[in-house]
Amino acid sequence: MAGQESAREAIQAMFELYANDLYRYVRLTLGGHEAMDVVQEVFLRAFRSWDTFRHDANEKTWLFTIARNYIFDLLRKKRTETNFLQNYDPPFAKDETATVETFIVLEQALTHLKKTYRHVFVLRHVENLTVQETAQVLGWSESKVRTTDHRAIGQLRKLLDPGAKEVLIHGETRPGHH
Question: Which of 44, 79, 96, 113 could link 118 by a cystine bridge, Cβ 3.0 to 4.6 Å?
Fold first, then answer.
């Protein structure tokens, strides 16, 4: 019983530290309408597998790996990826100086990235994980993370080009735009 109590306390502490980060990751990779359920399931799975957790490992990386695996399980069951823009709500922003439009455009641009690009971009640039931590979460080499991150940024730059930005905001091109 004491072991279970210490696991509960440890998971509670991790929840307080990382729940918001996990929520943001899930919301930006899967979609907002399921994010809270996924976060709850991640912490439930963490509690159940507490005995297998290597306590010298990074807790945040461990939780993000559980989240990634659970998201893949969900997508496999559905056989199609959830539409990211369904039930759209803008995320809470870390940068208070940016405009709401900036975040809407960025979030919409993320939906146009390949799933692998989106995962890497969110982990590296929204959650601020290191290349090494991102590689651990995704089960990739650090080199693959760097390459995918570079390609994701390049793709986002193309999507955020002023002409493309109009498509992201309005869903169609205006005369004179491609």
Answer: 113
